[in-house]
Amino acid sequence: MKKIDFLVAGVGGQGTILASDILAEVGMRAGYDAKKSDVLGLAIRGGSVLSHVRWGQSVASPVVRRGQVDFMLAFEPLEAMRGVELMNPAGIIVCNTKPIVPISVGSGNAVYPSMLEVKRVLSSAARIVHYIDATKEAVEMGNPKVANVIMLGGFSALLDIDPDIWESVVLERVPSKLVDLNRRAFRAGCSLIKEGKMI
Amino acid sequence: MKKALLSGNEAIARGAYEAGIQVATGYPGTPSSEILKTLASEYGKEIYAEWSTNEKVAMDAGAGAAYSGRRTMVTTKQVGMNVLADALMYTVYTGIEAGLIVVTADDPGMFSSQNEQDNRWYAKLVKLPLIEPADSQEAKDFVVQGIALSEKFDTPVLLRTTMRVSHSKGVVSLGGRPEVPDKVGPFVRNQEKYVCTAMWAKKLHPVVEQRLRELAQYAESSPFNRIEWGERSLGIITSGITYAYARDVFPSASILKLGMSFPLPEKLIRGFAEQVEKVLVIEELDPFLEEQIRAMGIAVIGKEIFPPYDELPPDKIHSIAVDAGFLSEDKATQPVAQSISALPLRSPVLCPGCPHRSTFYLLNKMQVPVAGDIGCYNLGCLPPFNAQHTMGCMGASIGVLHGMAIAGLPERAVATIGDSTFFHSGMPALANMVHNQSRGVVILMDNGTTAMTGHQDHPGTAWSLHGEDVPHIEFKPLLSAMGVQKIVEVNAFDIAEVETGLNECLEYDGPSVLITKGLCVFISRDPQPSYIVDADTCIACGECFKLGCPAIIKSDEHNPKTGKAKANIDPTLCTGCDVCRQICPTGAIHPPAQTKRSNT
Which CATH number do you get for residue B484? Predict the structure, then answer.
């Protein structure tokens, strides 16, 4: 059983920790040993979140080492940039393109990197980078909150895991009245990657 | 066997269930808070759990429950242990009737703490057994085994985690719950055991010392400790999360993993050290294991290469081991991309709609010295407020304010303290101010919850950990009864009211309390529609930026005369708290229903 190390990067409130919980649970149900650890910034809300998730025959450390991450799931471009030093150069990144501007930029004390710069950095860190405008897709589906499920759906297309495991783990974590919406969101994300409809 | 993915804290709660624990107490503190939260939400039927007023109260209550025959758990974060320690000292002398386990969650790396104290020393100071799980499975198992150890040796047991154990998740095999007593009592009247008056406590101390010798003997063959033999060129002694890191970084080394890190098994350690060429002790923070092993006359390498501060994540252990010649450079772990240090930070800020914002805006304007305290309002020390000038520990603000007054400081000073912190340890300090008649303004920032640690209850809230209606303590009558002569209560979301109240208290020649009342935005859960900035009316004066609200951002539009950016409001963040409207000098900020605020 080959080890797979993941990094989930985002901003507090985007569902980053939920996504990494889902990823660890999917690994466990698929028969892996799984561990995860969230590296939070100092902020209570709206801070950087980097979640490490590890699958393997037997996982000792919940923390991934530099250069070892096989897959990065990034909900926000700036946070994707923060994660690059952990990437294995042969790895794959899936990145949401919608920026969440930090207060240091909003108040004019720092500059948010251009999308060109984001792409340059991410391309130098990984073998393949998929960009998804998940926030836009989610708004089109009628609820901006399903952006993270669209992202997870896209991400699932890259891994050889039974889609039923994915869907059951994802859907048992959403409110019952939102199950249908989330199922559609998950499948939409999956098609985006499979059909190459990225940006 | 059923398996679940649990955090260390969730696993500790599960362990409490499987250990037959029936009572759990604690005070919220990151990274320990989820233990009691999980106990209440998942095992509330089987286990009584409460948020106590502070850690010492929690420990005394834990002692009383364990004396009464209930297996008990007490939880704290590392600094709460300093508050708890007084009560822990006597329980080690008395022993218990049913198992008692104290969980301390330490915070190497200071993710949410004011210091990096290593609570393993408490085991040595207090003289009780210390167990350190390395992952969630062990966190659960060690609670069960810890309760057994507690009852076997008639002593409380200290279980220490670190943030990385408490907050990481791993796969845990679940077990069942043993038979537990339905009823307890009558209370055991055993004065020579349970009354620590000098004449009896003097006889208890040798019992404690003898118990430690027996525990050290037990540690030699205890299942808590194990050797994983690998190559004999390097032997590593470690405990807790650093075991997991060491296992990853040194896959072929021999490792002595100490699950019980006090008292230490001397024969086991000596035997291990004799069979390897070199011994490396890897531990976060202090040389707790190292000093004891050196005292056995065993040569080890430890803190001369590993720093006694911050976390020791695998990458750091690896690079230090490479520099010291224990490992060769690993080309496979070299990323192409280097870390980018110049990226904009997401610095911590008061949330949009926070009731504390108005006070810190005014304190910044008034430039008074501010003695701060522990809670969200500590963020008042950061720009744009810069309005907290001291902060040390829970409840310190009022004592420090009193100290400023008795030192004869000519400036009028204030203390900022939250409602939960006030109950925790602010009350004795305020009683002292009243009794010794000093001067100063205590700003009691009453947001109706223990916000920073995840919105727990306290004696001022009308609900408890189980959610039911409970009588709550009102501040005004409480303060009156404490002898405070000057009490002003204001609406925290009304800047003019807060300012008037603050000035009134600052002029008062004695101890005064300004209660700024306003619910935490996570408690009120009553967001109003987002406010709007009228770009034509905005003159780009920048006053609203002084509120440090994440929802107020710089607009692309500028004042053509000054070149300064006008303000804009992010509709996804604004909660419509109204504070920015009140300070805008041109009336450019208004709720969405109006185009412009009426000039009244």
Answer: 3.40.50.970
- Are residue B113 and residue B205 in the same domain, yes or no? yes
Identify from A1, A3, A65, A86 which residue to disrupt to test chain B contact, counting B C-beta atoms within 10 A and taking the largest count: A65
Burial label, B154 (beta-carbon count in 10 A; 0-12, 13-18, 19+): middle
Q: Global pTM?
A: 0.96
- Indicate yes or no: CB of A45 within 8 angstroms of CB of B351: yes
Residue B97 lies in a domain: yes
Per DSSP, chain B holds a count of helices (H) and strands (E) of 21, 22
User: B474 and B520 share a domain?
Assistant: yes
The CATH number covering residue B562 comes to: 3.30.70.20
Q: Do A59 and B170 touch (CB under 8 A)?
A: yes
A60 and B247 in contact by Cβ < 8 A?
Answer: yes
Q: Which of A44, A50, A105 to mutate: most B Cβ within 10 Å?
A: A44
User: Where residue B289 sits, what CATH number does that domain have?
Assistant: 3.40.50.920
Nearest-by-Cβ selection for B169 from A24, A47, A110: A24
Report how many domains make up chain B: 4
Q: Does the distance separating the beta carbons of A111 and B347 come in below 8 Å?
A: no
Q: Does B299 lie in the same domain as B210? A: no
Same domain for B214 and B113?
yes
Q: Are residues B16 and B136 in the same domain?
A: yes
Domain that holds residue B101: 3-220
The CA distance from B550 to B548, in Å, is 6
Query: Is B145 strand, coil or helix?
Result: helix
The beta-carbon neighbor of A34 closest among B171, B335, B344 is: B171
Instruction: Print the SS3 string covering chain A.
Output: CCCEEEEEEEECCCCHHHHHHHHHHHHHHCCCEEEEEEEECCCCCCCEEEEEEEEECCCCCCCCCCCCEEEEEECCHHHHHHCHHHEEEEEEEEEECCCCCCHHHHCCCCCCCCHHHHHHHHHHHCCEEEEECHHHHHHHCCCHHHHHHHHHHHHHCCCCCCHHHHHHHHHCCCCHHHHHHHHHHHHHHHHHHHCCCCC
pLDDT tens for chain B, residues 1 to 600:
799 999 999 999 999 999 999 999 999 999 999 999 999 999 999 999 999 999 999 999 999 999 999 999 999 999 999 999 999 999 999 999 999 999 999 999 998 999 999 999 999 999 999 999 999 999 999 999 999 999 999 999 999 999 999 999 999 999 999 999 999 999 999 999 999 999 999 999 999 999 999 999 999 999 999 999 999 999 999 999 999 999 999 999 999 999 999 999 999 999 999 999 999 999 999 999 999 999 999 999 999 999 999 999 999 999 999 999 999 887 655 666 566 668 898 878 899 999 999 999 999 999 999 999 999 999 999 989 999 999 999 999 999 999 999 999 999 999 999 999 999 999 999 999 999 999 999 999 999 999 999 999 999 999 999 877 999 999 999 999 999 999 999 999 999 999 999 999 999 999 999 999 999 999 998 889 999 999 999 999 999 999 999 899 889 899 999 999 999 998 888 999 999 999 999 999 999 975 444 444
> What's the distance, CA B271 to chain centroid?
39
Residues B60 and B205 in one domain: yes
Assigned domain for B342 exists: no
CA distance A86 to A90: 12
Helix (H, G, I), strand (E, B) or coil at B110: coil
Same domain for B487 and B409, yes or no, is: yes
Residue B131 maps to a domain: yes
User: Are residue B495 and residue B573 in the same domain, yes or no?
Assistant: no
Q: Are B29 and B80 in contact (CB under 8 A)?
A: yes
- Among A28, A37, A102, the residue with its CB nearest the CB of B344 is A102
Q: Catalogue all structural domains in chain A, each as residue range(s) with its CATH number.
A: 4-134+164-170 (3.40.920.10)
Q: Could you say which of A62, A68, A89 has the minimum Cβ distance to residue B164? A: A62
